[in-house]
Hints:
Blueprint: E1 7-10, E2 16-17, E3 35-38, H1 55-65, H2 71-74, E4 103-105, H3 107-113, E5 118-122, H4 132-145, E6 150-154, H5 158-170, E7 173-179, H6 185-193, E8 197-201, H7 205-218, E9 221-223, H8 229-235, H9 237-245, E10 253-257, H10 262-276, E11 285-291, H11 296-303, H12 328-338, E12 342-345, H13 347-358, H14 366-381, E13 390-394, H15 402-409, H16 417-420, H17 434-447
Parallel strand pairs: 5-13, 6-7, 6-9, 7-8, 10-11, 10-13, 11-12
Antiparallel strand pairs: 1-2, 1-3, 4-5
Helix pairs in contact: 4-5, 4-8, 5-6, 8-10, 9-10, 10-12, 13-14
Bound molecules: pyridoxal-5'-phosphate (PLP).
Amino acid sequence: MSFVSHQLRCIGSGERIAPDAVSSDFRDPATGELYEVEYPWSETRGDAASLRPKAQALRHLWAERRDSTLPIDASGVWRYRDLLPILKDENNAVTLREGNTPLYDLPRTAKLLGLDFLLAKHQGMNPTGSFKDTGMTTALSVAAERGYKWVACASTGNTSAAMAAYAARAGLRAIVFIPEGKIAWGKLSQSMDYGALTVQLKTDFDGCVKLLTKIVRENPIYLLNSVNPYRLEGQKTPAIEICEQLDWQVPDHVIVPGGNLANGSALGKGFTELKHLGFIDRVPKISVIQAAGANPLFQWFTNAEKQLHPVTADTRATAIRIGNPASWRKAARVIEATGGWCEQADENEIAVAKAQIGAEGIGCEPASAVTLAGLKKLLKSGHVQTGERVVLLLTGHTLKDPEYTIDFHKDLLATDVAEAAPYRRPPLILDSNESSVMRALEAEMAGSV
Ligand SMILES: *Cc1c(COP(=O)(O)O)cnc(C)c1O
């Protein structure tokens, strides 16, 4: 079945091009800006109501597909393929059954913050342990359909893990550029496990991007960084999934970590399209939280300038250790259009928030925990009210970066003692006899009320 039906639209000039006319670095040569995928029914196409997919019918169809054993129906991304017709043949979809992630409640954290309830959409429960799978299944499927033999990305770790896995499924070769020494082991190991050519460059993420952009311009290699607009088409589907999981009740506020800033942009696109098509009657506020050591959007936001000033990024939340985010303009528009806000969280706030999420039995990687750290600040500043229904987007699995967790519990992260101490559970090294274990247990019981 042929269902390709889209154009690429420059977010700067609004000029449209055919999908196969795009340059290898996915930037408009005239404006230097990124593209977004536009369908005949998109809001930017005007008011062609007759072209719009019918919300009521699609809700039923999507629910029915849950019972199907077809791989593209079992995928929590391709199940919604009617709103992302980017392939010529939907059977070319390369899927690992991504999506379908849980929406948990966080009752203890909600109570602590004085909220009625708080939800966490755990995108770390994807096949390779991060939300990157939802965008990789779409963009890599496009690469495969167009006949590319090689795919590439620069990555802080999770994009490379996802790309390597999907490339392996499709039988494509993958080359990964990662900054040397600034990547969590879990992620580095995945890239090798899935058979990618893994290159550690003696530079940071932003340096990796620069070199890779040059290489894809001169070679038949398909770029899978999030400048690739097809990544965002997959990454918009958690917006649909959240609404479905809430029985089409829209949350008031969705809080997302910000690194290269594609994910917040994609969710904004997802919710906005759902509203345009009549699935929901309003769009939630979308707020983006950056690490204080990698905060160019936060700075832009507070200074309200026209231009973004890149920073030299430094944070142990390595997934968002990005100083020159490619999708900043898309993300800024989403924040402004939805009435959200941009905040930052320092290393101490990130560490404590991560421990609090862990203590709910959920766990996430440090970059995901900025959402909770940021929520606390948004409550203080009044950008979130206690009656709001808030969803935190947890982007990565806790096992991606076990070293960080161990360092926190062993007090090697230089966290604030008073805040971190209640959550610290360092391993005890004891003599192997009953009395020493019982002494430790009794001390613990006396300490907890
Ligand atoms: C990639 C990533 C982010 C940042 O997403 P962007 O789209 O780059 O803003 C946040 N958390 C985790 C775990 C990631 O892998």
